[in-house]
Each structure stands twice: as structure tokens, then as C-alpha cells.
Amino acid sequence: MNSFPFGSLPDGKTVEVYTLANASGFSFQVITYGATVTSLRVPDRHGRLADVVLGFNNLADYLAPHPYFGALAGRVAGRVSGARFVLEGEEYKVAANDAPNHLHGGWTGFDRRLWSVAASGASSLRLTYCSPDGEEGYPGTVNVSVTYTATNDNALIMETEATTDRATPFNPTQHSYFNLAGEGSGTVAGHEVQIHSDSCAPTDNRMGLLGRHETVSGRGNDFRQPRRLADALPHLHKAHGDLYFLPRSESGKNSPTPRLAACVYEPVSGRMLTVSTTEDCLQFYTGVSLDGTLRGKSGQPYDAHAGLCLECEGYPDGANTPALGDIILRPGHPLRHTTIYAFSTK
Asked: pLDDT tens across 271-316, in order?
């Protein structure tokens, strides 16, 4: 591992960038601002490396508004309907930063905090953050850590751990935008997507969750078999993508072992991304809101569908609809989750 300064925050604090790699050339970079993955270099079927995540070359662009490129989003990733929830008989109002809903932790979520380095090695980096009681309207002081690891078989492993002194909703996610043909190469319309789920969470026209399951069978958002994204986009709600419920074990409980959630294949490069997780849900996002106003590392504009997201998380509105997923972190019950982004070729 190597590290160097990536820039300075307005208060003068330094943001560092860390490079994690294996012996075959697979590597990724993480900055301490937002625990953000800024690059991810992966070989194609001929061994040629390309950066397959959207992002920027400088801190100034990450400090400016952007759609969570590579960041760790939280406390609660996804949308909290109506920007409110009731917990243990008390109502909490959080920022309606995606009115009328609360999105990805609010105006200053985990993605806009400076994280501390707790441990680092040749292929692993552990970052920590203490989220104080009342931050962005959430109760309880939460101590959270995220460990990023590069494996010898070309996988990025993300492990999160958290504790709290008061019950609080907690549901972070990794928010990288992937383009397996290479960042800045155009749209992901030619990617083939498979999602291992038979049900999703429907939304209203403001993308607020409606609090129920819905089968994907016979619908345009059924990705149980691989589908070319260009063929699916006209049939997706607002061409956006949905939140999918991942299957649980026969006991009805989640396993501490990650299970297969999704696969994405890009036929020109031959790159394949396989996602496994211990989380309950997968938010698939097509990057429809990208509009060409942001330019990435290659200098190319990020137009609609320049990258896609595979956000492993719990049910975001679980505080309001606990029957669909318990996302409440409680004192004395640490949370641990693992998500694996594994790369291969065919």
C-alpha cells in the first residue's frame, strides 16, 4: 500500500488517498473523505487494465455536488419516506434533501465526512468515523468502521462494523458507479445484468418506497436471467432501477456468509462483475440522472447511464416498515456486514 495527500478541506485538514493492490495489477484507490473509492483498475480478457468506476482526479470535484460517486452513503442509504420515522415511540424528522424524502443520510452524510485511518496494510485499509448523537437528525452516537481489502483473485471486499449507545436506524452502502468497458467510455447500455431476486420494492413517482413486496415475474424489471440493459431500460420505472429483496436461507434469517446478489457482464472487454453480500437488499441504479454536466477522470462528460450502481444495503425505510427489514442498530448488538465485488473475465 502507498498513500499521499489528495488535497485539503476548507478547515485545513488533509485528505489522504490510499492505493490497495494485488500482485496481478488489480488495484483500487480510497480517499479518507467519505471513505470514497476513487478508482478501480481491472484487467480485461487480454490482461489490459482499465479504471471501471466513475469519479474525479481531484478533491475539489468531490467537495462540489455530485451523485455519491464511490462514496460510503449513510447513516441510512436509500430513501426514508417522508423524511421521518418513529422509533421507540418518538418521532424523528430528518432532512428532506430529496423532497419529500430523505436520501443517503441527508445533506452531510457519511459521504461528506472525514474518516480516520485505523489500520492499513499492503492490501487492506480500515477507516473509522464517529457519528455524534443528533447528526442529521438521527439519535445515538454511532461508531462505524469500514475495511476495504484487495484480494489475490481480483475482488474488492468491503466489511462494515458499527456500535451505538442508543437505538438508531443504520443502513450504509457502497455507492460506486461501474462501467466495465472503462470509465468515460460511454454508456453501460450494452452491459448484461442479472439480479438474483424474485421480488422488489415498488416506489411512487418521487421514488419513495411504498412499503410492500412486489413480484418481478412477468414484469419489465425481472433480471433473474441476464438481460442487456438497453433492452430493459424502456420497461423500468423512470428508467431508474429498483430495490430488490435478496433471498434468505430456509430458516428465514440472513447468513454471515455472503450470498450471490448480482452479475454484470460487458461483452467487448469480457469483464464480469459478481456481487455477493450479507445484506437484505440490492438497489440497482442505472445512472439515469447523469446529464453530462460532470466530467470525470478521463475528461469525458458523464451522460445518462455512464455507469450503474449495485448498492448492497438493508431496506432503507425499515424504521417505518420493520416487517420488510430491521435496520435498527441497538446498544449491545454490534452490526457486521460484508459485500464482495469480484471481477473476472470470459
From this structure: 999 999 999 999 999 999 999 999 999 999 999 999 999 999 999 9
**Could you tell me how many residues make up the chain?**
346
90 SS3 class = strand
Ordered by start, the domain boundaries in the chain are 2-345
Cα angle 212, 214, 218; round to 5: 170
| Phi then psi dihedrals of residue 143, to 5 deg | -105, 120
Q: What is the pLDDT of residues 139-197, one digit of tens each?
A: 999 999 999 999 999 999 999 999 999 999 999 999 999 999 999 999 999 999 999 99
- Dihedral sign for Cα atoms in the order 315, 165, 131, 159: negative
> Which residues are marked as active site?
175, 311
Which position has the higher pLDDT, 254 or 11?
11
Reported as type and span, the H/E element at residue 277 is: strand 271-277
CATH architecture of 2-345: Distorted Sandwich (2.70)
User: Do 126 and 120 meet the contact criterion of CB atoms below 8 Å apart?
Assistant: yes
* Cα-Cα-Cα-Cα dihedral sign, residues 286, 289, 292, 295: negative
What is the rounded (10 degree) CA torsion for 115, 120, 124, 129?
Answer: -20
**Distance from C-alpha of 310 to C-alpha of 227, rounded to nearest angstrom:** 15
